[in-house]
Design brief:
8-stranded mixed beta sheet, 34% helix, binds ligand BES, binds zinc ion
Amino acid sequence: MKLMIDRGELISTEADVVLIGLFEGEENSNESMTALNENLNQGLNPLVADGEISGRSGRSVLIHSLGLLESKRVFFIGLGHREEYKAVALKNTIGNTAREINKMNCESVSVDVASFTSVDIDENVAAELIAQSLIAGLYSYDRFKTEKTTVALKNVLFHGAMVENEDIFRGEKIGSALNVARNMANDPPNYLTPTKMGEIAAEIAEGIPKMECKLLNRDEMASLGMGSFLGVAQGSIEPPKLVVMNYEGNPADKKNKVALIGKGITFDSGGLDIKSAAGMRTMKGDMAGGATVIAALKAIGELGLRLNVLGIVAATENMPGGGAQRPGDVVVAMNGKTIEIDNTDAEGRLVLADALTYALSQGAHKIVDVATLTGAVHVALGDKCVGAFGNDSEFTRLVIDSGFEVGERIWEMPTYPEYKDQLKSDVADIKNAGGSGAGATTGALFIGEFAGDSQWVHLDIAAVSKSSATKGFTVKGATGSGMITLISLCDKLASNSE
Ligand code: BES
Ligand code: ZN
Ligand code: ZN
């Protein structure tokens, strides 16, 4: 798909379809509509009067220009009330629209960017989010289909006086990276092994200046004392990998380093505390946090953000093989803490524990981990937002706000120290499961024990990493949740450090 700016008059744009956003109650004052209406011999007036062309949210109307305009069609898209129109709504609107115009076999589209701006969204942000959402909305996973999907849409013209090439470039890079994350989490577990995840990360790093990728194997991790991570890996014959992507976007400020850490369980059987068949069915996606981190590093590197970012993925299977760890085992983590294995299915926190210690050893002072960590976060929040847990309210707020601005909803959850009582062990420093009640918080607090003095935020994406339906920005299957927030956060941190 080719994305370009069009500085000409909307009336003379030549495309298979023109997209115009329409706010509720503003149908008679929409400038673009007024301009087109003149060439359409005021033919739109009765349609507006009858309410057929309306700014109501979810309402869209296609008009054929029948030779009266340079473009073949105009698509009026209802956006609801201007004051309520936020990034999340814009992205859903464009995702839906992308699939609709693609179904009509439109090869070229011209977008009236200004008509999608609102209180929170200027033309630059709108253009970026539109580019991102067209790419994300048209995603489909066909790696193992003999018949591949084709996308009709080839050219997108961004019509707007303020739109910059940079906006479109960013949207394109972020949208494409999101689809890379989705691909990984949709990949079957016999294909996307820890080794494969490492190869994908290495290949990405190869193409990006200032980025290096290191893959630590079982022996190297053992020499670092990663007993917590390796305890999980020992039940599987697939070799585990600690994927380390180091991006030095601001080498002059070496001390300033943020770590993005992803849970990369390429299949979670539960281990000896084995899951039910239904519970195991979706567990190829238990590496979604890792995919999010790898894809975020790709976009951060391609955008050339001026920030040092360490991307780490703790990649392994969690299997019940003959060598598997047992409930009751005690393992020693890289930072020396002893952990009693209360439940082998609470493996994400175990691999993340050592990944956090490793990040600290590499000089990270800010850490965000992204993980499909608990079923409990779904009980708490459903599938409409991500749960956030942190040890520094200002940093947690920054992460949440970074997500909000780009259309990802994140809700802060409590991390009161009293919850840690649930993780007390009779035989070790800590145990890995906190019993009933506040399961998402006790999982987070376990990870927090390994955050040292860093500012740390944990994002539990277990409830949102996968969707059962195609709707708006979301396509059925892996969602790539969290990636856009990580990029937005790094963007903010980069501009703060300048
Ligand atoms: N990978 C699961 C969490 C999960 C559940 C992700 C459903 C996506 C959908 C995680 O490893 C797990 O099994 N967690 C346990 C923790 C418990 C044993 C303390 C859980 O949530 O039940
Ligand atoms: Zn598990
Ligand atoms: Zn898991």
